[in-house]
């Protein structure tokens, strides 16, 4: 009987295990998981800390017992793989409860060890807690349940922002420190500003452009000399692929520091596969190696591996990195490349900004969306998109991501036949409107200017107009702009 061993559970590992069983009823499938939990909703962990998800069992999707009953999987939790012998096709396993060590041979080995939190070498950092596992969540939950007066989150990425929100939800005075000049690096600065305003409005003490220098007993000293009260400290500055097993086994590590794999997620060893946060992916725009720690990609690659092992045809799909995060009352979504990355790669592009309603304006409850589309100014190829708003962001970014996957150009977004009724959208959906604007740009009918180009236009003698109503302008204008309401432009043009 063939034995397949999977190191690590959660999204990727369990997707591979269950697909293997569906394709092969006779194989022995062993899942070895270092933690005490093999299948849980890790994306929901911050919301358990915040009390939004109230029952711990709601996070636990499957147990070793339920997986055995349904799929006849041999799932062993608290079992750490300490080494791989590719020549013998075996792994060394340490039972963390009994201390027993043993070896298991395999026909094929699948590595899904995930990623490890980045911990900077600063004084007192041992007091900071990271959030990756159910055990981490319980530790933080207990600290939060003790009702601390203050908390500090180090890191303004997706996890850091989610944790800060949930600490505020629990009534804890919370600060967030981010070494760069903005939160959520996948966003461009003008989009991130909307998120930062929301966080400050909801009570987060946001400190940007500074880092933590020292973690004290009840505070944190920052690089600018300020000291912030912090009875609890959450560290969320990022993760790195866990490649320890792969490295000791002699597998090739890629340019981005993850396990290098081919289109079937096969490593440099013909009998070992890798997926999830530990494995590199291929970017759809430039075919470069990239790290994208997203559960949906891990699930997809688990299926690819199982299909390849069973000699089924597979489809390799490059990643575009579509993601979304809730920030208090806002949904923040992104797909593809941002403007910063396009600039760094010297790729010519145009940025399109629109601010449509989430649905028909005459139907109650319409909210303003902020959408940004990045395109090739000649071909109209879509490079990426970002969206922020209270309602309807997810479906617009998902439509654009689907269009990118299907190879549609930006002008062709105007041609999409999208569902419409007043409570849900508009006859010209926000995605259609992006297509219309893109068509005008690509055809040369209009030329757009971006916020960071304003000074250049002013210096070159351009007159800068603000075409909003006087009432709208009364709430704030960019210095140097002249207000001529859009309804008056034709009459006042000379």
Concise overview:
The chain has 494 residues and is an alpha/beta fold. A five-stranded parallel sheet has the order 5-2-1-9-19. A five-stranded antiparallel sheet has the order 22-23-26-25-24. Strands 13-12-11-17 form a four-stranded parallel sheet, with helices on one face. Helices cover 27% and strands 24% of the residues.
Written description of the protein model:
The chain is α/β, with parallel strands linked by helices and 494 residues long. The model has no long low-confidence stretch (mean pLDDT 94). Helix content is 27%, strand content 24%. The longest helix has 15 residues, at 295-309. The chain folds into 4 domains: 3-115 and 240-309, FAD/NAD(P)-binding domain (3-Layer(bba) Sandwich); 125-237, FAD/NAD(P)-binding domain (3-Layer(bba) Sandwich), CATH 3.50.50.60; 329-447, FAD/NAD(P)-binding domain (3-Layer(bba) Sandwich), CATH 3.50.50; 452-492, Rhodanese-like domain (Oxidized Rhodanese, domain 1, 3-Layer(aba) Sandwich), CATH 3.40.250. A hairpin with a 2-residue loop joins strand 22 (323-327) and strand 23 (330-336).
């Amino acid at each position: 009987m063939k034995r397949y061993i999977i190191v690590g559970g959660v999204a990727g590992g369990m997707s591979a295990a269950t697909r293997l069983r569906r394709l092969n009823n006779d194989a022995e499938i062993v899942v070895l998981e270092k933690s005490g939990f093999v299948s849980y909703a890790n994306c929901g962990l911050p919301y358990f800390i915040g009390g939004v998800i109230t029952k711990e069992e709601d996070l636990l999707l499957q147990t070793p017992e339920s997986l055995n009953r349904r799929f006849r999987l041999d799932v062993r939790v608290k079992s750490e793989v300490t080494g791989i012998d590719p020549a013998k096709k075996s792994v060394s396993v340490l039972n963390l409860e009994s201390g027993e060590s043993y070896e298991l041979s395999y026909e094929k080995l699948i590595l899904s060890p995930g990623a490890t939190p980045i911990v900077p070498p600063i004084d007192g950092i041992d007091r900071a807690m990271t959030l990756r596992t159910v055990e981490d969540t319980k530790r933080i939950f207990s600290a939060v349940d003790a009702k601390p007066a203050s908390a500090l989150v180090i890191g303004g990425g997706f996890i850091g922002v989610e944790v800060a929100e949930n600490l505020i939800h629990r009534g804890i005075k919370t600060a967030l420190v981010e070494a760069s000049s903005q939160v959520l690096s996948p966003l461009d600065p003008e989009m991130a500003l909307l998120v930062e305003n929301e966080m400050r409005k909801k009570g987060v003490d946001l400190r940007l452009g500074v880092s933590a220098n020292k973690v004290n007993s009840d505070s944190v000293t920052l690089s600018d000399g300020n000291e912030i009260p912090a009875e609890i400290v959450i560290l969320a500055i990022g993760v790195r692929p866990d490649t320890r097993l792969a490295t000791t086994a002699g597998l090739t590590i890629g340019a981005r520091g993850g396990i290098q794999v081919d289109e079937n997620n096969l490593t440099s060893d013909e009998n070992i596969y890798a997926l999830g946060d530990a494995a590199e992916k291929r970017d759809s725009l430039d075919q470069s190696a990239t790290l994208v720690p997203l559960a949906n990609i891990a699930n997809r690659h688990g299926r690819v591996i199982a299909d390849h092992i069973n000699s089924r045809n597979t489809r390799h799909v490059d990643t575009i990195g579509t993601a979304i995060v809730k920030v208090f009352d806002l949904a923040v979504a992104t797909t593809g490349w941002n403007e910063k990355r396009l600039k760094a790669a010297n790729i010519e592009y145009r940025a399109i900004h629109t601010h449509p309603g989430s649905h028909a304006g005459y139907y109650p409850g319409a909210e303003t969306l902020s959408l940004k589309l990045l395109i090739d100014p000649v071909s109209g190829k879509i490079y990426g998109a970002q969206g922020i708003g209270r309602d309807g962001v997810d479906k617009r970014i998902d439509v654009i991501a689907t269009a990118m996957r299907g190879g549609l150009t930006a002008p062709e977004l105007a041609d999409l036949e999208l569902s419409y009724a007043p409570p849900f959208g508009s006859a010209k959906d926000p995605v259609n409107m992006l297509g219309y604007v893109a068509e005008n740009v690509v055809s040369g009918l209009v030329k757009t200017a971006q916020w960071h180009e304003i000074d250049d236009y002013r210096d070159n003698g351009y007159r800068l107009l603000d075409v909003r109503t006087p009432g709208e302008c009364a709430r704030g204008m960019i210095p140097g702009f002249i207000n001529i309401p859009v309804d008056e432009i034709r009459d006042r043009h000379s």
